[in-house]
Write the structure tokens for this entry.
Amino acid sequence: MYINFWYPTCLSSALTDKPLKRRMLGQDFVLFRDAAGVAHCLSNTCTHRGGSLSGGQITGNHVECPYHGWQFDGEGRCRRIPSLGAQAKIPSRARVDAYPTQERYGLVFAFLGDLPEAERPPLLHIAEYGPDGPIEGWTVTIQAFEWGFDYKRSMENGIDPAHNEFVHPTHGFSGKRENYSVTPPELIQTEWGTGFWSSTLAPPLAEKKMQAVSGRSESAVIRAGTGHIGVNSIWTFIHPTPDMKIHQYLFECPVDDANTSLYLVNLRNFLTDPKDDARMMERNEYVALQDRDILLDVEPVVTPETRTKELFVAADGPIGAYRDKLKRWEKYGWRIDIETVERNRKKVAYAIPCPARRESKGWILDTVPLIRPAGSIDKAGTAELSAV
């Protein structure tokens, strides 16, 4: 798991009038809205006596710890310590880590890391989504899942050009074509991602309504593209016909190294009546469950450290490129040392470092230990990036 990326925390609709506890990157966080409705994300551990902030309540612009009533604002600063009295000066060390947030695409994202704004990797951009929702001609559905597999396995599955033929009967022919093969994809490399486009023979559309919309009832070659941005986001564009488009954006967040939360933002430019949403969501879930069932049985659970323990072929080029980027981000010192975290689970309360830690000292909680491999380098500055 890696710090210094944007992670989906929850559906926007999940943030109500109570604090929300979320486990991400193996650590606990509290999410809440202030009086103006702005979403905030803090480390969940109160730096007084270890209380769980998410078990408390929202008081105005603050989240209040249920243990002793300490109140923290959206910047993580303590604003009230009841036992000291109303006029007491609050110690400067009375603070918790606070993380930048963005509310986009019906989701609340948090930047879980300490990079200053100018150096942060981008959040995957959805061109079909405007400030107030989908742009004209497009409609959206959002689905959330939480399953017991390593998020990296899921990411690699999403950019795997060879699995569709065998895992998804709606996408391929279940391996029954004797002349089936995969042309090694030509990779599109950017600083923060890898993608590719391909043409694939797809089975006939099963639903009569889909046949009518597409004008196609036979097998046909369709155009599709997919790729990742950062450690945890995937874009997939499927064009069953030149005019019929499905654009999917998958945002993943590791709960820990064996469990993953997934948020699928699906946009389409056909069947845009809301009454068709349930059909499309059912179809999306049907496909997602096929991926889930495969990934739940993959061994080992966690992606291997080296490729020598898996036999790669030409079609695995996108997965290899993704792993290469993970190694580079590890050299930046962004990978969490999970073994040390787990070894100290009952003895140490850690926090993902937030940007304010670069500006001040005297923090109470230790930051999560990070892996610093040989040849580590510092990352300074990033390039602006679009998804495709």
Notes: The longest strand covers residues 246-256. The helical segments are 151-158, 164-167, 208-214, 277-295, 317-331, 338-343. The first helix runs from residue 151 to 158. The CA atoms of residues 275 and 281 lie 11 Å apart.
